[in-house]
């Protein structure tokens, strides 16, 4: 999946009415970039209370795709956080 396809996925998730994407989190490990969408849990009585909408699965990116996606997110003004996961 390239950066533009990932951005389209992010945009679709951000337009959901049942859950709102609060921000995007990137966990950076030695040569792996893991993207998670962090949702704001807002209770709504317009949806079936027994149904919990599925969240987007984490995506594993390579460095090139990560850098391209960061450029797109910066251009569009979409909030994200980058964390370096250093394990001892």
Descriptive account of the structure:
Helices cover about 30% and strands about 30% of the residues. With about 90 residues, the chain is α+β, with helices and mostly antiparallel strands. It has a 4-stranded mixed beta sheet. The mean pLDDT is about 85.
Summarize the structure.
By secondary structure, the protein is of the alpha+beta class. Helix content is 30%, strand content 31%.
Label the structural class: alpha+beta
Poorly predicted runs of 5 or more residues: none
Order of helices and strands: HEEEHE
Terminal CA distance reads 31 Å
Features:
88 residues; alpha+beta; four-stranded mixed sheet; 2 helices
Give the arrangement of secondary structure elements.
Elements: H1 3-14, E1 20-29, E2 32-40, E3 59-61, H2 63-76, E4 80-84
Parallel strand pairs: 1-4
Antiparallel strand pairs: 1-2, 2-3
Helix pairs in contact: 1-2
